[in-house]
Structure formats: C-alpha cells, structure tokens
Specification:
- The structure is a single chain.
- The chain is globular and about 65 Å long.
- The chain is about 25% helix and about 25% strand.
- Helix 4 packs across helix 5, helix 4 packs across helix 10 and helix 7 packs parallel to helix 8.
- By secondary structure, it is α/β, with parallel strands linked by helices.
- The strands form three sheets. Strands 3, 4, 5, 6, 7, 14 and 15 form a seven-stranded mixed beta sheet that branches. A six-stranded parallel beta sheet has the order 10-9-8-11-12-13, with helices on both faces. A two-stranded antiparallel sheet has the order 1-2.
- Helix 11 links the parallel strand 14 and strand 15.
Length: about 325
Amino acid sequence: MSMKAAVFKEKNGKLEIVQMPIPEPQPGWVRIKVEACGVCHSDFFVKYGGMGNKFPRVPGHEVIGKVDKLGQGVKNEEYGIGKMVGVGWFGGNHCGRCEDCKENEWVHCKESYICGMHYDGGYAEYMTAPADSLVPIPDCMDPVESAPLLCAGVTVFNSFRNQNIKAPAVVGVQGIGGLGHLAIQFCKKMGFEVIALSSGNSKEQLTKQLGAHHYVDTSKDGYIDKVKSIGSVKCILVTAPFASAIPGLLESLGTNGKLVILAAFNEPFNASSTAMIFGSKSIIGWASGDSRDTTDTFTFARNNQVKPMVKSFKLEEANEALDEINKARFRNVIKM
C-alpha cells in the first residue's frame, strides 16, 4: 500500500510529490490518516537542514487527522481508531527522567522529537507519531481551520498565559501575521486591553475586527509616546522577526513590563540595560509548548471562538503554499 506525500529529497531542494509506502506505527506510536496540515515558516528549517534533519524528509508539524492504527502498547480507550487528533511542533518521545521532564518541561527534553523534522510529518496522506505527542481535537473544530493552533496558536497562548499578567492590564502584540492575528484574539478573550503594533496602517481595520482596542503604527516618529499614552504596558508579544524593533518595544513597556520573544531573528538585537534596570523590565524567549499545552489551547479556542484565518491548498500545491507563506492572510493549510 502506498500514499502520496510532499518530500524534500535533498538539502535546499524543492518539495516533490511522490508515492511512498504507508508507514507502520512502531511500539508506542500511532498512525494518522491526515486531513489537514498547516504550513509554517519553520518548515524552511527542514528544507535547509537548519536543525540537522536528515533527508529525504516529509515536513509539516501542524497536523490534524484520524487515528488509523495503533502501535504495540498504545491503549485503544485512550487513542481509539477513528479519533481526531493533532500533532504540533512538540513531536513526543519525552524521556520522563531528565531534569526538564521532572519540571514538566517536556518540550525541552533532549530526547523529544520535532514532528516533520526528526520524523516524517503531515505533508502526506498518512504519518506516524509517538502517542505522547497527540492532542485530542474537539469534534466541533474544523481540521483545516484549526490546524495552525498546533504551532502558531499554542506559541502565543502558552507563552502569554505563563507570564502571570493580571487582566485587565494593557498588553501589546507586535506583528500582525500568522502568530500575531491569533495573539490579538487570545489576549482579548483573556480579558486584556490589547494594542496592535505594526508598520504602516494597512492592517489597522483588521486588527480592530480581531479584537484589538488600539492600533499603533510603529513606522511613525513618536510611536513610543503614543503607546505610553494608552497605559502602562505590562507585556508585548514579539511575533515578527525584526531585531531593529526591540529597542523601541522595550522603551514602550511600562514598569515591570515583559518583552516576550516568539520570532527567531536572523541577527542579534540591542537592548538598553538602563531601560531594563530602571523600569524593572525583562526580555524573555519562549518555546511553543507540549501536547498538554496544545490541548489547553484548543479548549480555550473552542470555548472562546478563537479562529485562525486560513487559505487551503491541495497537497500537489505544497510548494506554492510554502513559497507564498509571506503573502498569507494569515496561514496556509494543506487539505488532503
């Protein structure tokens, strides 16, 4: 039995649509019949071998589908055949013994996998994954519309909820893209006063529709004073990878404010130590979350109507979906 998949056969190559054997789940793993897979900027890491992945490799770590077969040792009552599940950036296989695991930081376990990087991901009709990577998907949530919650969604939801900011504080979201358009919705639904920060005014109306209370054009002189005039900003989620924006965003924070870095920059950034010391400000990085965090993300999104804005592509259009990721409003998703 064979399946269709989009695969990087070699480093820096284009995705190729090929026929591959349908994989068999190893002990502790399950096989998933894929229904949808979100397209993420991190899929370029796979293309370029940026994190040491092997080739050939099927990318994709925003996967939703139905359990098709159980590997040895996986209990049917927990992950039954036909159950809708998801697999995100956290690809499972945490050891349960290391210090990170003991501190419940599965995503930082050195034994943990990344879906679509350490093993073949969701740009395929079938895939296999460790059982501890699985996220139960509520029946009422559409696979195509919901797939981006498995990476972009959990990244903004989990990072923000762990900053211990008390509503109804003023918070900011820098960058209105795949992460940012979800961050606005999550922060608003959590009860916060939200400032959307972006360059230019083309996205102002959309951010208001998403739930932002204020919009600040960061390309204009005096934007820092405008942010400060709104209130004491306790947190800004940085979702767009512009290192040059950091000094201004840091200055925009109120006392005890936190700058949470969610985007990977291509270059170092500068930060004023005096601004951090005298304002008791901090800069924090955050890795998305594990399957438990993603389960919480889906539960909150379902209960509060947080929805990604997506455009669907056929598997045969995977190259187009990936190459045009910067044009997406706001997330491309492959639909099987």
